[in-house]
Task: structure prediction
Amino acid sequence: MRLQQCPVTGRLIFPPRPVNPWSPRDKALWTTVSSTGTIWSVIAPHPPLMLDFTDLAPYNAIVVALDADPTIRLVGNLVPEAGAAINAIAYEEIEIGEAVQVVFERINDEIPLPRWVRRMR
Amino acid sequence: MIKDKTAIVGIGQTAFGKKLPESELELACTAVLNALDDAGIDRAELDGLASYTQESNSEVELARNLGLGDITYFSQVGYGGGAGPGVIGNLAMAVATGQCRVGVAWRSRKRASGAVRRPWSKSSSSLQEEIAVNYTRPFGVIRPVDEIALLARRYMHEYGATREHLANVALAQRKYANNNPNAQMFAKTLSREDYMNARWISQPLCLFDNCLETDGALAAVIVSAEHARDCRQRPVLIHAWAQGFHSQHQTMQNFFCDDPLRGPSWVAARQLYRQSDIQARDIDVAQIYDAFTPLIPLSLEGYGFCARGEGAAFTENGNLELGGKLPVNTSGGGLSEAYVHGFNLLTEGVRQLRGTARNQVPGAASCLVTAGEGVPTGALILRR
Result:
């Protein structure tokens, strides 16, 4: 997994943006980071929702705090394995603080969507 | 500083409801005329206009339809529910500095008629115009309620807050609405059991954690404190106002920053109290932006009514109700009176300080009015 990083301060940047907030005249670089983290929050959306999500509801959505920098948080979904549906694990079974790791689901030729699976600490 | 230099001398509104027959423009015009009548000011004197960027009626259309004269000041503030006190504050600055003499702020919407498309219902191509939503919406975090639910769930985890606390907010405000004939929920009571059994919208938030959908419009008239002495109503002074958002704030998605539970309210509050002779401990009644119940405990902390993490406990023992520590959203607020981007919180604040509220706080002399937590925000301290 690659994120933007300030070349001067070393701080990670997310979501990505055109100008580096920590040193605006120095362009952010893309760097590979450890793709592990812990669950910071979790919800289960129910309808009314956009059509594609209505069929999956209730599904889980999580915020993951990265181990590399816990103030960097990514939104995603907890799945039992890569490619599984985002409603496969129920909201009630998910705890804040659980250790997770990224997996990528290739939804088309261009976009690999990050999802998260549980991992042993 | 514009401390006490301007006053709100007129308030006006339309009916609140679903599928009102009038257009948003007609509703806006009615609210403005009602506010001017309330102030006893002829529309020919109006020369300043202010509203929200999300308002669909332009100043020009309003002026052409109301037959207004020369307008010398107009401005809009962005960020939806974060705008209200900023709209009022900017207009007050314009009046205080002589850019206009009689200013009117307004907000009109027909949200309950589906007249306006929600940003989250846009197609994928238009979503790509914004950056951060590309990192939330593909994962099903689509609506404002999903974004606030993520913060709420974390808040509950960190501080031991429960659904009982959120119910305290919803029930207190419904009780106020049940005594306010203008409230959409006037005739509908809400029990704790109703709350606990309600359908989920975005767990851990249920139906009653969400504001209403409303057709309606409101307006307020602002003049100088000196001018206010000649008006029909007891003036309500704009004592202090502030806007704010913190470093790396992300609108509605404040998990993309260092300390998500310390939101924009904290910045607005610091700036507000810096200018104000009235501090949190002195405030008699508060109108706190409430698109969702969790915004109340978060804002109570931000505006210094309790320490960080104590906002949920503050809702206990009827503290938000009449006779409690801090009566909050005494008209029913966005949850139970009407949801018009918080403009009804301002008008209720004015009524409290006039002494004419349906749920009057005895002797109320100061009122805090806030915009939304979780978005670039603002706040006002009003006084008699």
Summary: Residues 51-54 of chain A form the longest helix (4 residues). Chain A touches chain B at residues 14-17, 21, 40-46, 49-50, 53, 56, 58-59, 61, 63, 71, 73-77, 86, 91, 96, 113 (CB under 8 Å). Chain A has one helix and eight strands.
